[in-house]
Automatic annotation (TrEMBL):
This is F-box domain-containing protein. It holds the Pfam family F-box-like. It comes from Gigaspora margarita. Coiled coil: none annotated. SUPFAM superfamilies: F-box domain, RNI-like. Residues 11-51 form the F-box domain.
Length: 373
């Protein structure tokens, strides 16, 4: 397909582009589909081959140097602090919204900010119904155009952030990865979707700022009832309840667990008992545990002294006292499986403590070893 420069209405252009991908998908190297700013800056790049593009071409140089100050500022605010005279090859790095990572399997990733900006684009995905593997939708209201997802039976991953849950109703088949970030969480539609995905679901991430206790109970019971084969579970801002304990204890294939608990009304003594009960029921398959939360870190010694799981990676906030330090060292000696501990407050670690612990395990900044959904 010949290289072209497009200027015009983004939805119309993207509809044509997606409809033609079926025949010449290898022509598409990078594409953005988020906002009007991205649209204007990405369209001239869509049909260029970054690996054969002449670095001294005046075409791209002139294009980026012609951007207005607002558009340059938009890029710089997103840590793309670059000279606007660089070539397409350099700029292709940040065009990741529709991202064909592997052109052999055609893993198509898609994200959008505003529903009005992708009018017509969703329906154009019908030509990609066999190749679409992952969909990421952010800040979108439901539209009937989402019904095209019901045709994408090879979809494996669905990620929703602050979206209308009606999107879940358009998918009648099973997926293996589900991520939902919202505030507050609505348990009922998620429960129905979990029932559909059932035993095939292996990776689940639920993140919210607050929720009614009844909704949490419904959600936890749904995960326990319908998703016994989870290998990855991340629940952010959950109440430390009996239902949570029952769920974790039931997941006998769980390998990765991220847990952030919100404050409750339990006394210190009650919390210590509950934490002890929790670590005692962790499955023996668990290799990764993320406890980077100030409340949880206060009971780190309780976690470690009672944990039997053969952890390989542990993420914590810090080592605040000698009791926690010794608990970590004793865990390393006892299990002999832990090879790395991520510390979110790594810069605050006492040098003496660091030297003492690193005789048994490597300490790094948490973000270096975090595993996301």
């Amino acid at each position: 397909m010949a290289s072209k420069i497009f200027m015009g209405n983004m939805p119309e252009l993207m509809e044509k582009i997606l409809e033609n991908l079926n025949n010449e998908v290898s022509s598409l190297h990078s594409c953005a589909l988020v906002s009007r700013h991205w649209c204007k800056m990405s369209i001239p790049l869509l049909w260029q081959d970054p690996f054969s593009f002449n670095r001294k071409s005046s075409l791209i140089t002139n294009y980026f140097s012609s951007l207005c100050e607002d558009e340059k500022f938009f890029l710089k605010k997103r840590v793309i602090n670059v000279e606007f005279s660089k070539t397409l090859f350099d700029y292709a790095r940040f065009l990741k919204v529709i991202d064909l990572d592997d052109l052999e399997s055609i893993v198509l990733r898609w994200i959008s900010d505003i529903a009005n900006e992708f009018h017509g684009i969703l329906s154009a995905l019908k030509s990609q119904k066999q190749s679409l593997r992952e969909v990421k939708i952010e800040y979108c209201e439901y539209s009937t155009e989402f019904n095209v997802l019901s045709k994408c039976e090879n979809l494996e991953t669905l990620r929703l952030k602050i979206c209308d849950y009606s999107v879940l109703n358009t998918i009648d088949y099973k997926i293996s990865t589900l991520e939902i970030i919202d505030t507050p969480i609505e348990a009922k539609p998620i429960e129905s979707f979990l029932k559909k995905s059932g035993t095939l679901l292996q990776r689940l991430k639920i993140e919210f700022d607050y929720a009614w206790e009844e909704s949490e109970t419904l959600l936890l019971n749904a995960i326990k009832s319908f998703c016994p084969n989870l290998k990855y579970l991340s629940i952010i801002f959950i109440l430390f309840s009996a239902e949570l304990l029952e769920l974790i204890g039931s997941l006998q294939k769980l390998q990765f667990l991220t847990l952030m608990l919100r404050d409750d009304k339990m006394s210190e003594e009650e919390s210590e008992i509950r934490y002890k009960e929790f670590v005692e029921i962790l499955p023996i398959t668990l290799q990764y545990l993320d406890l980077t939360n100030t409340r949880q870190n206060s009971y780190l010694d309780v976690w470690l002294n009672n944990c039997s799981a053969p952890l390989k990676r542990l993420l914590i906030d810090g080592l605040d006292n000698e009791k926690q330090t010794q608990a970590l060292i004793e865990f390393c000696k006892r299990k002999r499986t832990l090879n790395c501990v991520g510390v979110s407050k790594y810069s605050e670690l006492n040098d003496i403590i660091k030297k003492e612990v690193e005789m048994y395990v490597t300490l790094v900044l948490s973000e270096y070893i975090v595993i996301d959904c």
